[in-house]
Backbone:
């Protein structure tokens, strides 16, 4: 019998490795921690997500479900072994060509799985590819580009030459005049994601680093009588255990970052629970040990003596205030306000038609494939802190942390590494964003914390759970006169920094793209003993579109008006732009829709969908399935936050550097920013390098959220380039004794305006700059773009055609289409990828994803076996068309945000389609998700189904 | 999510494994494919003191067709072996057709028939397949060997007749008659997920076109795979027709108890049991006239 370490010999990527391993060390951890092959990623550690897939003796296996000792004598191939160093193989190149990756976190697992498939099946069909990768979850791409890439690679393997694009050339700076904006340029960041050399936070290792594990509440609502850490502290390898006493005097409640709705400030969270816990998963203690395995061993030994209390698990129970979560506030009602405009009562009084329904959206969230994580390192001598892993809004969060750690802001450096998806939930200031740096400071050693998947599902923001009673008033001609309603939002146990975004945006966007002049809404944000909520991609948009578009369809059906026709009558017209949509968020100025031709975009969508030809199928039973077609129209607000900063620097004769406050979570900033810069400076894209996110690059920066990176960060590039060009011309003019207005900058050259006579080149100046500080100064420029609080608004229409098996409640989405006008596309392939990916996320959200709790507040969906994300076989038929019909007039690029639109009306279109399909059975869809169990229940309950109708 | 500490041992023969199991019976766990056990370890839902890795006992992975047409599978034969092996396609067409519904390729590359049967997940395919095929399971301990019919093996939710010192070593599938019809239907939330409800049926036909023997097995609905004899009795001796099939399906629906969980209520499962039973039988007898 073997106790202790076991000697193994494993061939890894063709190299024989001998090692001694602990029996419980997984193959994944062996590869990552012992062999530094960090291309193999851990996304769930319970065998569902597929990110850790490697080839074991040529077969695709999950390396989180195999212990390293089981691989003794076998051969392992990881993503790093798929191609020679510095090269990409056929499959990897196909992934790049097809934009088959965004954040890159799932990519190594996809590549290894596809490699095994292509060895076994020479010419797989699309269905075979989808089946083969169905055990690999991707949150970004919607799978379609991945399937296309694998099919393309299989063809290339049979001598059919794939197309190559974007040849890269090097040379003196400048010389490129062809426009880069608008080109579907391959992503320059892809190479590191494809060959396993990317660097996510879990890939950071620092000398002497310790590992943290967070002890979390097992109860939804309880007093903490006592925490006993004696036993845990005695465990081998334990460096420290922190409880509330340790952080008292340092930690402060979280701050509200955006949308501080009235009353919210009373319901904030401390990083560790003091004497009460309010949700399952609330941090209670932090264990720091010399490896993660031992940290978890010790965490199990922390004994918390709880006195459980009744849990409040829904908004109705919360609103009674029978059980109070925050007794000092004497209410569970975190915020209550009324917003509106016009004469709502008058409009309802004169309406020819009124209908009121109550709609519900279920609790779900973003669930990026990479969980959250941090590495913090404190240098006691210089009193400086470095933190790897922050994202989204680094400058803002650095300020929050500096306030708690009592150090100047510029003593903290936030380093932005590769990020495995965000979709809104990552990067706000969570409890761990204080706890881990604090532990590093306290211990004087680097500390790493990587959230595990179980933690993620209970600790990272949930989202979207709310119900809305909504009433519509329509006149005799089919024009919507008014909307009024009441929104009950389940906030969870505390108000998080962006907890107000979803609820407030629901009301701001409730009237959406329609000419509705009278509306009034009541907000009730209520506390419950569940995980706190925050924003998730298209916050408030997804929900409000569902509420409004469902009611619009119900009204159209009642009035006997074809749903598209009903919408057309009510869409805001192009001659009504800019449209004042009113102020529906306390303390926030009115929303003004900037530009758009909504009816034309909707008409395009209907045409592309062949909408009219589907009429004979609608509501009909064909081959045992009921067909329905549904649509949703939406307005999406993008480009928020006040400002973004960019710094440009000519770094050498063949190099220009771009530093931006935008932070990428996989969207492709390094490519898009370069496309803008290349055009503005007339340089070849290969001459530009982007540095994004980290706080050391700039003095201040905004970040990435609200689909703002191109609108704000991109516009800042335009301003910075303009300034840089002017500086360069002024410099050359001054040195040559010429008037600045007689010279111009053109594609890396400074020439005489009159005749184009060349004066000098940027490359020459860059060389001279090495000796001359004044030239150096002129070759660097910063600019900040401010939107003056003017947002950009896209408009889109989404359409779904579904077939529902009424016996099994199985729904097949036969086709799903998004048509959205995003003003201007910098990179159409990236926009397309965002839209398709968002659509599939929205389809998953509508049918599958759901956090469920029991009546005691226990989370029932704590693993990927229970919280179901869409896989490659679920929604294969997704299309997207992005238009550039109505550029924004609020920024120099004319761009509008394009990251979230694909999600906005997914629930709206799908629920309208499913409702139409099930209408013959008497079902009316008012609730999400459209899970099989829910659909089956509605079908059972509907009176129309009788024995005689079953086939 | 890291596994707790355990000791690890790799026996090379069945007797060696059995001897280790006998000595560590109370706190030892057999490690087969690990596709259910290792997640449980990583989630710290299980904490055995010793893992006995069966992965190096080569005789346990054998998959052979015997002269009489029966198929004998070592308990460590993998799902993928059944999916890809041509002899399974010929000798156990139902099993072959069902394999793609078992999880995903990475899981099938490691997961084993013996591991799945011993784990006894009520929503897994293997317990139902083994019952439907009339398989016989060989259970061995260091002291004794016994054989049990597949339908007597499973006692309930994650519970089998295995004693703590016993191990499932091989599964024998009796010869597949030439005149056998079969059907397999399953509803899961996503492809590859455990079934909400699944139904497997096999029907043997006589020369006159009557069903001479039948098994209808429902899984996912309750605490284990359930053969519904009452429904088989509806079929036997009769020429299958849509009416007969409907009658049998109704009997299945009325007989099988159903459970609720977060994915499906008992009422939904009851609906599915009848619908999928009907569809499985229709799959076995395609193209039946509506009235027969």
Residues:
């Amino acid at each position: 019998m073997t106790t202790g370490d076991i000697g193994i010999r494993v061939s890894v990527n063709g190299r024989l490795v001998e090692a001694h391993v602990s029996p419980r060390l997984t193959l994944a951890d062996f590869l990552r921690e012992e062999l530094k092959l960090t291309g193999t990623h851990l996304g769930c550690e319970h065998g569902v997500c597929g990110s850790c897939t490697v080839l074991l003796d040529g077969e695709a296996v999950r390396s989180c479900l195999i212990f390293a000792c089981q691989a003794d004598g076998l051969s392992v191939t990881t993503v790093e072994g798929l191609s020679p160093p510095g090269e990409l193989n056929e499959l990897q190149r196909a992934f790049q060509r097809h934009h088959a990756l965004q954040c890159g976190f799932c990519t190594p697992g996809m590549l290894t799985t596809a490699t095994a498939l292509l060895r076994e099946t020479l010419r797989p069909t699309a269905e075979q590819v989808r089946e083969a990768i169905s055990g690999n979850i991707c949150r970004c791409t919607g799978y379609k580009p991945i399937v296309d890439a694998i099919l393309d690679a299989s063809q290339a393997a049979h001598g059919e030459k794939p197309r190559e694009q974007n040849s890269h050339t090097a040379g003196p700076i400048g010389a490129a005049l062809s426009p880069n904006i608008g080109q579907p340029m391959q992503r320059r960041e892809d190479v590191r994601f494809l060959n396993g050399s990317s660097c996510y936070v879990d890939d950071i290792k620092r000398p002497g680093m310790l590992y943290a594990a967070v002890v979390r509440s097992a109860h939804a609502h309880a007093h903490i009588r006592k925490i006993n850490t004696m036993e845990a502290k005695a465990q081998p390898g334990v460096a420290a255990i922190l409880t509330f006493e340790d952080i008292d005097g340092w930690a402060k409640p979280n701050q509200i970052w955006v949308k501080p709705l009235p009353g919210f400030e009373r319901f904030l969270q401390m990083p560790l629970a003091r004497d009460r816990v309010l949700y399952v998963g609330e941090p209670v203690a932090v264990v720091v040990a010399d490896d993660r395995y031992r940290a978890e061993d010790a965490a199990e030994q922390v004994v918390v003596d709880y006195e459980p209390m009744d849990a409040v698990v829904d908004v109705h129970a919360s609103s009674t205030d029978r059980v109070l979560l925050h007794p000092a506030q004497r209410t569970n009602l975190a915020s209550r306000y009324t917003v509106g405009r016009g004469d709502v009562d008058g409009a309802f009084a004169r309406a020819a038609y009124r209908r009121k329904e109550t709609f519900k959206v279920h609790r779900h969230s973003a669930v990026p494939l990479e969980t959250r994580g941090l590495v913090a390192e404190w240098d006691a001598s210089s009193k400086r802190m470095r933190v790897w892993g922050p994202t989204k809004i680094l400058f803002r969060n650095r300020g929050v942390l500096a306030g708690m750690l009592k150090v100047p802001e510029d003593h903290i450096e936030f380093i932005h590494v590769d990020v495995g998806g965000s979709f809104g939930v990552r990067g706000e200031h969570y409890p761990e964003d204080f706890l881990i740096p604090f532990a590093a400071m306290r211990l004087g050693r680097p500390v790493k914390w990587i959230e595990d998947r179980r933690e993620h599902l209970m600790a990272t923001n949930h989202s979207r759970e709310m119900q809305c009673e909504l009433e519509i008033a329509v006149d005799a001609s089919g024009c919507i006169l008014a909307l009024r309603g009441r929104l009950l939002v389940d906030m969870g146990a505390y108000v998080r920094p962006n907890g107000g975004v979803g609820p407030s945006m629901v009301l701001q966007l409730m009237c959406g793209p329609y000419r509705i002049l009278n509306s009034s809404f009541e907000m009730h944000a209520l506390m419950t003993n569940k995980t706190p909520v925050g924003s998730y991609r298209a916050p408030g948009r997804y929900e409000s579109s569902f509420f409004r578009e469902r009611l619009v369809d119900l009204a159209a059906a009642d009035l006997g008006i074809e749903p598209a026709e009903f919408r057309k009558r009510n869409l805001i017209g192009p001659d009504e732009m800019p449209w004042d949509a009113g102020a529906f968020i306390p303390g926030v100025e009115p929303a003004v829709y900037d530009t758009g031709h909504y009816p034309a975009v909707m008409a395009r969508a209907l045409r592309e969908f062949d909408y009219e030809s589907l009429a004979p199928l609608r509501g009909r039973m064909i081959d045992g399935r009921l067909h329905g077609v549904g649509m949703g129209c939406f307005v999406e607000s993008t480009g928020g936050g006040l400002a973004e900063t960019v710094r440009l620097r000519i770094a050498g004769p063949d190099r220009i550097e771009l530093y931006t406050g935008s932070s990428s979570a996989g969207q492709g900033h390094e490519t898009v920013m370069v496309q803008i810069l290349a055009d503005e400076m007339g340089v070849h894209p290969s001459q530009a390098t982007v540095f994004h996110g980290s706080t050391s690059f700039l003095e201040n920066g905004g970040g990435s959220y609200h689909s703002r990176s191109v609108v704000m960060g991109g516009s800042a590039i335009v301003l910075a380039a303009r300034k840089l060009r002017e500086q360069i011309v002024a410099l050359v003019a001054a040195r040559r004794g010429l008037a600045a207005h007689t010279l111009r900058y053109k594609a890396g050259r400074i020439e005489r305006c009159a005749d184009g006579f060349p004066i000098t080149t940027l490359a020459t100046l860059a060389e001279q700059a090495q000796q001359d500080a004044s030239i150096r100064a002129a070759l660097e420029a910063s600019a900040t773009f401010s939107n003056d609080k003017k947002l950009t608004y896209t408009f889109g229409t989404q359409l779904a055609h579904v077939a529902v098996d009424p016996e099994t409640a199985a729904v097949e989405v036969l086709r799903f289409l998004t048509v959205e006008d995003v003003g201007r596309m910098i990179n159409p392939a990236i926009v397309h990828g965002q839209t398709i990916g968002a659509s599939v996320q929205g389809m998953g959200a509508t049918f599958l994803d759901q956090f469920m709790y029991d009546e005691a507040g226990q989370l029932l969906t704590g693993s990927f076996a229970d919280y179901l994300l869409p896989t490659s076989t679920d929604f294969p038929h997704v299309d997207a068309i992005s238009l550039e019909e109505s550029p924004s007039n609020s920024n120099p690029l004319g761009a509008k945000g394009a990251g979230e639109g694909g999600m906005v009306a997914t629930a709206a279109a799908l629920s309208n389609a499913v409702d139409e399909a099930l209408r013959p059975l008497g079902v009316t869809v008012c609730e999400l998700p459209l899970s099989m169990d829910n659909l089956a229940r509605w079908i059972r309950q509907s009176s129309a189904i009788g024995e005689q109708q079953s086939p | 999510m890291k596994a707790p500490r355990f000791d690890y041992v790799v026996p090379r023969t069945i007797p060696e494994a059995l001897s280790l199991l006998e000595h560590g019976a109370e706190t030892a766990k057999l490690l087969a494919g690990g596709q259910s056990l290792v997640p449980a370890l990583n989630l710290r839902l299980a904490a055995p003191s010793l893992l006995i890795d069966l992965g190096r006992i080569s005789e346990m992975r054998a998959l052979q067709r015997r002269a009489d047409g029966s198929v004998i599978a070592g308990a460590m034969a993998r799902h993928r072996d059944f999916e890809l092996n041509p002899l399974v396609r010929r000798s156990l067409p139902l099993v072959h057709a069902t394999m793609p519904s078992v999880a995903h390729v990475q899981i099938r590359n490691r997961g084993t028939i013996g591991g799945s049967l011993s784990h006894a997940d009520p929503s897994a395919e293997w317990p139902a397949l083994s019952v439907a095929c009339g398989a016989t399971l060989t259970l061995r301990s260091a002291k004794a060997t016994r054989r049990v019919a597949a339908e007597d093996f499973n006692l309930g939710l994650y519970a089998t007749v295995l004693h703590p010192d016993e191990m499932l070593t091989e599964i024998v599938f009796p010869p597949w008659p030439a005149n056998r019809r079969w059907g397999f239907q399953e509803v899961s939330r996503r492809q590859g997920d455990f079934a909400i409800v699944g139904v497997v049926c096999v029907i043997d036909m006589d020369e006159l076109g009557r069903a001479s023997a039948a098994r209808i097995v429902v899984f996912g609905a309750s605490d284990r795979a359930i053969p519904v004899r009452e429904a088989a009795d509806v079929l036997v001796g009769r020429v299958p027709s849509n009416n007969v099939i409907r009658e049998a399906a109704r009997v299945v629906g009325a007989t099988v108890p159903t459970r609720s969980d977060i994915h499906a209520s008992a009422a939904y499962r009851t609906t599915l049991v009848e619908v999928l039973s009907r569809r499985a039988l229709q799959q076995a007898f395609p193209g039946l006239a509506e009235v027969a």
